[in-house]
Design a protein that fits this description.
Helix content is 34%, strand content 15%. It has eight helices and eight strands. Bound molecules: NADP nicotinamide-adenine-dinucleotide phosphate.
Length: 215
Amino acid sequence: MKVGIIGSGIVGRVLATGFLKEGYQVMLGTRNINKEDVVKWKKENENGLLGSFQETAQFGEIIVLAVSGLAAEDAINLAGKEHLSTKIIIDTTNPIATVPPENGVIKFFTTLEDSLMERLQKLLPGSKIVKAFNSVGNAFMYKPNFNGQKPTMFICGNDDEAKKTVTNILTSFGWETEDMGKAEAARAIEPLCILWCIPGFIRSQWTHAFKLLKS
Ligand SMILES: NC(=O)c1ccc[n+]([C@@H]2O[C@H](COP(=O)([O-])OP(=O)(O)OC[C@H]3O[C@@H](n4cnc5c(N)ncnc54)[C@H](OP(=O)(O)O)[C@@H]3O)[C@@H](O)[C@H]2O)c1
């Protein structure tokens, strides 16, 4: 299966490598294939392909959106909405504002009655967007090691089949998955990023993930 990763930041590169290790064909999408990090990624991942956002959107049967939240709409427009409609889009983005954190609490440009995922779903009504990977640091996205304990990835989205596909991907990446329902649940899942970052900013602790305990 072909995966197109729109975004060549650390999240895009880590997930691209993870998908390659799981046997997928992968194209990493960027506005500049000569960027140092991108060139290094290609050297380390010979089987991986590089392309523009548009080529990546055309290539992928499954799309991963891994761009800065503020640039998400621009990236989608560059990719071409027509190449994204009907596809599963794994949305890793967070709506982080450009202002600095306050006592370790980062700020969002969305409200609790809104989420970036819902805005993107409105922009791409035919796409099957699934929120995932936004509530953990990139170092733990693929095969995280928490002394044998599986962390929980919270996902949501309007298409049940797409969520099953993403759950299978998450299982192979070493996660247990909790489906929180439709796109509106992103109003709760996106702010998990704020909570995840607080220990990092206030005591330099970045090596954790969430787990849902059930009795
Ligand atoms: N870093 C983490 O550990 C982490 C964890 C969970 C979730 N996230 C979320 O995942 C997303 C990606 O994070 P990241 O840290 O990998 O990278 P990032 O610095 O947030 O974003 C980098 C990507 O955004 C693209 N971009 C920037 N400005 C753009 C513009 N004006 N138009 C189009 N594209 C633009 C860049 O394109 P080029 O490829 O062309 O440079 C690059 O692909 C973010 O939404 C972030 O909040 C990050």
